[in-house]
Automatic annotation (TrEMBL):
GO biological processes: sucrose catabolic process
Keywords: Carbohydrate metabolism, Glycosidase, Hydrolase
GO MF term set: endo-alpha-N-acetylgalactosaminidase activity; sucrose alpha-glucosidase activity
Keyword check for Mitochondrion: no
Organism of origin: Coffea canephora (Robusta coffee)
Cross-referenced PANTHER family: ALKALINE_NEUTRAL INVERTASE, PTHR31916
Entry superkingdom: Eukaryota
Assigned protein family: Belongs to the glycosyl hydrolase 100 family.
Documented EC number(s): 3.2.1.26
Enzyme class name: hydrolase
Protein name per the record: Alkaline/neutral invertase
Catalyses which reaction(s): Hydrolysis of terminal non-reducing beta-D-fructofuranoside residues in beta-D-fructofuranosides
A Pfam family the protein falls into: Glyco_hydro_100
Amino acid sequence: MRYSTSTTSTPLLSDDVTQPDIKQLNFTQTNAAMSFEDAVTDAIDDVTSAPDEQPLSAAVVFGCQAEEKVKKKVKMQGGNSPENVTAGGDANQFTSTVVMMSAGNGRPTSGLKPSPSVGTSLESLAKSEADQNDNVSPWIMGEAWERFYKSFVYYKDKPVGTLAALDPSADALNYNQVFVRDFIPSGLACLMKPSKEGLDMVKNFLLKTLHLQGNWEKMIDNFTLGEGVMPASFKVQYKPGLQKDVLEPDFGGTAIGRVAPVDSGFWWIILLKSYTKCTGNHSLAESPAAQRGMKLILNLCLADGFDTFPTLLCADGCCMIDRRMGMYGYPIEIQALFFFALRCARQLLIPEHGNKELIERIDKRITALSYHIQKYYWLDFIQLNNIYRYKTEEYSHTAVNKFNVIPESIPDWVFDFMPLRGGYFIGNLSPSRMDFRWFLVGNCIAILSSLATPAQATAIMDLIEERWSELIGDMPLKISYPALEGHQWKIVTGCDPKNTRWSYHNGGSWPVLLWLLTAACIKTGRPQIAKKAIELAEQRLARDGWPEYYDGKTGHFVGKQARKYQTWSISGYLVAKLMIENPSNLRFISLEEDKKIAQPRLNRSASWSS
Ligand code: GLC
């Protein structure tokens, strides 16, 4: 295994030359003394003169390194051929510039898009950061790392994961377990700030969960679960009879509501790809056990059935929102993770090992899935107006209103919420049912996996800016919007007292989501949005004891039943900081657009012209 423990911007990748997806950001620091304005103009010039139409990752990045002006040249490889991520370059290489700006002195230029949330000028952002955050941020980072290390779980003296929460004041329930989805930001923090122990932990986590997938009888009452199912969580349990520790998984059999962890397998494949990319070590991904594990997960999703859509049919509570919340059907979070995992698996599966047929199925599903989501889940002003004017009861292939959505089912709030500039993927789609709610995870994953077209990704970021107070408010970030209230809350959640309006999954605000927002912001060249959100979180997160979630319309209150010292609130913050400080870290968790995937023809709305 080859990796660097240095914290410089030198790429950690060593022999990842076969990966065609992610642009390699190759920093060379030149310490040039130049005005901020010149630097930004340079950056924009470099970006706009790029010789091909590759979407720009990390186009212009404002960091704040006190009393320091640093210009960093970023080599981004584009073109149609797979990038050679380690070699010096090829004909398609182009150079753009990343500017690290002096916290107090920087002046914005007109080249930047104004942001309603940040104001039309970045000056105030830079100033407020300089004033408030420069002293506070390193302290918070220090505390976060310390608490993060305390959450490590050991099995046979080796780190295998992180506890969900370490809150001495609350009943542990299952928060003393290692959750697969909760471990993703932990794993990414270890990859982005590599140490031997951290990288070992990611590897051990991948191996142990793989082992649990294949070697555990997954029974709930008399029913045996699918072979490919990955656990939602596991714990280290001492067995007095055996006089030793064992790993005990939960596949939903002990979870509240017996919910199915559909997202676990997808996150596992995505993390395996990130690990491979970071270490350059392909031996884990190429091992027979990992290849088998991936195939088992995919078999669960690619099996023939009665489906008329390429999306994956799920029960409620099958992902981060693991309680009844009206997510049954085809929730965007699962569809985006499914797409992401398919694309990662496509790159990790070895074709020679009898995988040819599987790879063909993956390719077909990727194409069908992206078409379906990009075309039918997309909502912006124009599309909303189209739906509002839909005719119903259309028959045959010529139907415009394919799913027979009844315009009267559009909730009133959408008309107020939808800005002229911006758009998003709706929460769910099935016959006569569009769930118009906004879900952050699905939308950000769609950006990171390039399920969203570049224009759609831009529009999602526009929406976040336009609806800053609703989606970010006082504490980033709303997991879903808006909240279900009154009669609807009763019917949809089953009167869930944990998911009352503007609480927990029902319109609550989750700091862990900062890492996803930051990654999406960097990918779309809008890091200032993430910086502003991080700054907001820094004002309270550590002081409030790293709560799991916040409540209230603007996320002003620490959540009713929120755990303190929730590990993914800590690691999510750390990953956000590690990416904003070194945007090239994005490459561990982002896939570039695959030009071979056909895109649907869509009516473009005003929001797409930017
Ligand atoms: C809650 C969350 C779930 C998370 C778990 C552990 O159940 O809804 O997403 O994985 O806590 O933190």
